[in-house]
Amino acid sequence: MPDRYSVGRGAVRGFSIALDVALFSPRAHQLAVLLVAAADQRSGRAARARWALPSDSLRTDESLDEAASRIARGSLGAAPALLEQAVAQGGARRGSDGPDVRIAYFGLVPDLGGAPRDTSWVSIAELPALPPRQREEIDASIAEMRAQVDQQPIAFRLLPASFTLTDLQSVYELLLGRRLHKASFRRALHASALVEATDEWRSEGRGRPAQLFRYAPPRRKRQRRGIRFDLLT
Amino acid sequence: MPDRYSVGRGAVRGFSIALDVALFSPRAHQLAVLLVAAADQRSGRAARARWALPSDSLRTDESLDEAASRIARGSLGAAPALLEQAVAQGGARRGSDGPDVRIAYFGLVPDLGGAPRDTSWVSIAELPALPPRQREEIDASIAEMRAQVDQQPIAFRLLPASFTLTDLQSVYELLLGRRLHKASFRRALHASALVEATDEWRSEGRGRPAQLFRYAPPRRKRQRRGIRFDLLT
DNA sequence: TGACTTTAGTAGCGCTTCGCTACTAATTCG
DNA sequence: CGAATTAGTAGCGAAGCGCTACTAAAGTCA
Question: Within 13 A of A225's CA, how many CA atoms are on the CB side?
Fold first, then answer.
């Protein structure tokens, strides 16, 4: 009889688990991901710059979420504004001594200026060569993040407490990777009542000054919707 | 200096990895999940029936996807119509000898009648006591599956090649867990041109016979949409 | 036979949402 | 003073949604 309910029997304890954390941030009108510089490991050569996602092995005294948070803080020097699990992949050893299973997390980080030492914010449109599977992890993370953009108000975590609506629209455009129409964006935003106007205005060189808004979520119950056949691939 | 880019260094090889597979199927107008009966492991007692998700440890010669497929086939006796990763959880040992990390997959299975020996289709509204964390895995799987319902035409995988529109609507209602309005459902479906009518009709006892349709996806490019602020929690 | 029940399927109203063009408003530059 | 630049709004036409109310075709049963 096939082994149909072997819960916990004969567990193989030989796996190592690596966590990769893709931290995204809006930088210079591009969506950028934080990469760390790692020395080339092959000997007998001048060390060339290699790039990789912040990564580490799971330790025995922490949960996956804790490990992801530790790795994010270690590479960034601060806690990200959001940190969520994207995807797990792996199994079947690749013949190397690397980890067998990789679990990818992604995070969002406001643009607060520079990058920590030995790290760099790199536009997702210009990614360098990366270790195996990390490219797919970044792609999966972006897809997962975009799926959450209109489920959770994550865009506001990338902005300071008060911001202009043009700022907010730019964040949405970077997160989604496409342009939005100004009037439609504002209409939908106002209808949602997610922001409230302050009485401050910001002048940014030329042009009319922009009013500052703050995030002020109402307590609303989620309303159901019909089937979105138009979203089917 | 903090350990910021320790790719593959000091990997701990002590983890075991368990995969749980939640297989969903429409049964008796309920969404059901396949559970396997496991004998009570505590000794000195008459074995009471215990239920659990189909589960097994990851082996060293297979990938995560392969393991999930193996477990699904092992419990079901056939391959499911869909199998996708839902979530990984764990780390930090619970002091037991169980696996350290659990990775949940979910699948969809058409209603083809009975359940294999030692298994049972149980309505998700009447779940029995389950091993730790499996309840959360089922909840996460349902949420993930529902998020995919209008991204992928997964409902059609639960129906035979030809079906009535009432059948199709029932599948959508079970997958989404709520009632849909007949006229609106059909209007959206016809607008999508996802199905085409056959020239056959099915009479189901009383009432007017229903026309049979088949799934016939058009090749269409995905059109972008605006921000759905109204979906924000 | 003929009314009643049951299930399938459609018409269309009122409202909301969307993308878009076209406008007005307030500031700096020269 | 314009011209340029950025902020913000009005509103049109199309599409989508929820719903009530209808028609259509079968079985049931007096």
Answer: 13
What residue type is B190 in one-letter code?
H
**What would the pLDDT profile of A204-228 be if each residue is shown by its tens digit?**
888 999 999 999 987 655 555 667 6
CA distances to A155, B97, B187, B214 from B193, rounded to whole Å, are: 35, 53, 10, 11
Quick: pLDDT tens for A150-206.
Answer: 888 999 999 999 999 999 999 999 999 999 999 999 999 999 989 999 999 999 888
This prediction has a pTM of: 0.86
Q: Tell me which DSSP letter residue B61 carries.
A: T
In the block, residue with structure tokens 């703050």: A214
Distance of alpha carbon A64 from alpha carbon A29, whole angstroms: 32
**Chain C nucleotides reached by a protein CB under 7 Å:** 5-12, 17-22, 25-29
| Secondary structure (3-state) at B79 | coil
Q: Do the beta carbons of residue A130 and residue A137 sit within 8 Å?
A: no
Identify the residues numbered 153 to 192 in chain A whose C-beta atom is closer than 7 Å to any atom of strand D: 164-166, 182-183, 186-187
